[in-house]
Design goal:
By secondary structure, this protein is of the alpha+beta class. It folds into 2 domains: 220 residues, Periplasmic binding protein-like II (D-Maltodextrin-Binding Protein, domain 2), CATH 3.40.190; 213 residues, Dipeptide-binding Protein, Domain 3 (Dipeptide-binding Protein, domain 3, Roll). The protein is 26% helix and 23% strand. Strands 13, 14, 15, 19, 20, 21 and 22 form a 7-stranded mixed β-sheet that branches. Strands 1-12-11-10 form a 4-stranded mixed β-sheet. β3 and β4 form a beta hairpin. α7 packs antiparallel against α9, α8 packs antiparallel against α10 and α13 runs antiparallel to α14.
């Protein structure tokens, strides 16, 4: 019965896949009504000579209009940026030659001689145009809201002004650069200066090596884009042999098992335990710190996320800098509780002491299984220390209402941090993530001292862990699945979803 259901599901996947091919491809007015993707049989693992990647015809290929991960992950292949973010979440010059930071002003000098795919020069006017397009786009508007202006100051010089002191502002300058006036409409595929050029012809969708690329591009091979309906998982199609690689950011709340090779890409998604400091017991920073020290983050990584998460004690991505202040050990956590005087128990076996009984309600959104299992994992760790956690699974709407009303003690939260690890939304009085946090607290002040350069990141992180206004648990990863026929090392970069970072090497001779 199970085998029959699996066959039916696979057939339905192909039906939906084929239906997506009857849409017009981005950037063209006329297209063939189908692409030849269903005639091949499943292949054994063999050397891949033309990599096939998924993309969506239902989404745009204009980087300032697209919305889905499937097409966003293609952007770094077609477009350059002033800076790229490496695997350690550090900004590396790309189109930028150098930058000079003076207070709230940043002067960026561009490399000369870079050309777009039509051989026209990339200049400051293109950067300014791209900045203003990006500032209106769903993918880049948040990070670029830190800037008050962007102006050309010569053919190869761009000047940015910040609204206020900002952490690592160069890390925010990874927006795609396109040729001026080629990206005004969602159906346009703008001119870029990246390693590949998009082309749609005779029902085929290709990324072809850019002959004008600034670096040696001889080893790059044409990439074939396979249109797949938004409701179909590319992982299923990969297993049939119709794709060679695909990326899953695991936002669905589940890790898909696949008959394929796979590797992780560290995302900047911070998963944390939110704390309501208005609760009398939890208003004590020592209690919050003890809670943090009693949670097994290694278990969360392995059992909840199947190894696709990095344990974190501080609110900085461990890929950038790993901070460790205590052992991942419940026994040591219990010792902390004993030292705090929580060494008595109720008749039900719940620990109690100085401020009362250690019994709390933890809310989580029921639609995401990662978060449900995470809540149960946290409750299990704390139960071993005699702390009672009542998990309430709520619909997304109920969850938001409970947060806004303060009807919780603890909550499971997740946010995708900007590349500069900005935490201001936690500590601003009106911050979108400030639930349960006192904006007048010492740690809020310490954060803005850190942003202003008065204290270092390490000093802030140590104070953060001591006060634990919220409790970092892990930074989540995504998974790049790929054919075992790719015999080169695959090196995805989670930052900016540059997950096909070295794809030009995959099928090289």
């Amino acid at each position: 019965m199970r085998k029959s259901l699996k066959i039916i599901a696979l057939i339905l996947s192909f039906v939906i896949l084929f239906s997506s091919c009857f849409r017009k491809e981005p950037g063209t007015e006329d297209a063939s009504s189908e692409t030849k993707i269903g005639g091949e049989t499943k292949r054994p693992a063999q050397q891949v000579d033309r990599v096939r990647l998924p993309f969506s015809l239902e989404d745009s290929l204009n980087p300032f209009f697209l919305k889905g991960v499937r097409n966003i992950s293609l952007v770094p292949l077609m477009f350059d940026s002033l800076y790229v973010i490496d695997e350690k979440y550090m900004p590396v010059p790309s189109v930028a030659l150098e930058a000079v930071e003076e207070g709230l002003n940043i002067k960026v000098i561009l490399k000369e001689g870079i050309t777009f795919s039509d051989s026209s020069l990339l200049t400051s006017a293109d950067v300014v145009y791209s900045f203003h397009q990006a500032r209106l786009s769903p993918s880049y508007k948040t990070q670029l809201s830190a800037f008050s202006s962007c102006e050309a100051a010569g053919r190869y010089e761009v000047r940015f002004a910040l609204k206020q002191p900002t952490l690592s502002p160069l890390s925010l300058l990874d927006f795609p650069i396109v040729k001026q006036n080629t990206a005004d409409q969602s159906e346009q595929v703008p001119k870029g200066s990246g390693r590949y050029i998009y082309r749609a012809e005779n029902g085929e969708y290709l990324l072809e090596p850019n002959p004008s690329y600034r670096e040696n591009n001889d080893i790059a091979r044409t990439i074939r884009l396979i249109p797949i309906g938004e409701s179909v998982s590319p992982v299923f199609i990969l297993e049939t042999g119709e794709l060679d690689a695909c990326f899953d950011d695991l936002s669905s709340g589940a890790v898909r098992r696949a008959d394929a090779a796979q590797t992780g890409a560290v995302l900047n998604n911070l998963v944390y335990l939110g704390v309501n400091s208005k609760n009398y017991v939890l208003s004590d920073k020592a209690v919050r710190n003890a809670l943090s020290r009693t949670i097994l983050r290694s278990d969360i990584s392995t059992r909840v996320y199947s190894g696709n998460a990095l344990p974190a004690q501080a609110p900085v991505n461990p890929a950038k800098q790993s901070y460790s202040y205590f052992a991942d050990n419940i026994k040591e956590g219990i010792e902390v509780w004993e030292e705090l005087g929580y060494n008595q128990f109720t008749s039900g076996g719940v620990r109690r002491g100085g401020r009362g009984v250690l019994s709390f309600t933890l809310i989580c959104p029921s639609e995401n299984q990662f978060k449900v299992q995470l809540a149960k994992s946290v409750a299990g760790s704390l139960k071993e220390a005699g702390i009672k956690i009542t998990v309430r699974e709520l619909t997304t709407q109920q969850y938001k209402e409970a947060l806004n009303a303060g009807n919780y003690d603890l909550y499971i939260g997740e946010t995708r941090l900007l590349n500069n690890m900005d935490l201001s939304e936690f500590f601003k009085a009106d911050g979108a993530l400030s639930f349960g946090i006192d904006p007048e607290s010492p740690i809020a002040k310490a954060y803005f001292d850190y942003v202003g350069g008065t204290i270092s990141e390490s000093v802030f992180c140590r104070q953060f862990v001591e006060e634990s206004p919220f409790i970092p648990l892990v930074f989540r990863m995504g998974v790049l699945y790929y054919s075992r026929g790719i015999d080169k090392e695959v090196k995805p970069v989670g930052a900016s979803l540059n997950v096909y970072a070295n794809i030009h090497e995959w099928n090289a001779d």
